Amino acid sequence: MYRSRTISGAVAVGVLVVGVLAGCSSGGVTTPTATATRTVTAAPTSTSSGAPTDAPSATPSSGTRPDGDAPSSSGTGAAGPARCVTGDLAGSVQAGSGGAAGSVYVHLVLRNTGSGRCTLQGWPGVSFVGDTNGTQLGNAAAEDRTAAHPTVTLASGQEAVAPLRITRAGNYPAATCDPTSPDGLRVYPPGSRTSLFVPVTQYTACRSTGVTILSVQALVPERQAAD
Asked: Tens of pLDDT along 106-129?
């Protein structure tokens, strides 16, 4: 009985092995399944600051000259006459339109005494001076910006004119004005840090800075001053 069961189990195992071998020999090899691929593009490398390595550098900004004047330029790039320098100018005062009640207009004249052409543009700095030593008397002239301020080109010997209004010192109480006789005018041509002296003694200045009795317009070509 025990022997019969052993033979039956061996037969069963043999049948199972034969079945497996039969399956392998009958083309039952498993075909691998294809796997889809994905293309990945690498991100560009950046610098530690996050900016691209070929980023353009900043363009330096233009500056100004040490004397505070902005650099001049022309549309064509061609060099024109230079600005008139104080050493090539002579100043004088001529009669103006006469003025209104309480003030008088005179013409402050700047003449080109140099050998070449030069330019003036804007408002001259003007103040009364006295005490025989150039002491400024009162406030410098206020700039009257209601009139034109063209660039004036002066050939040798030509003149530019700035109308100058002088308010009569007698319009103010003596305690407010502190009136005094001036020796003349200190005049700074536009854009210049050096001045010239124009003798003027027929007017009364105010030594006090509590009032401003001078007002100057921009320079214009001779015979074109409105006042």
From this structure: 999 999 999 999 999 999 999 999
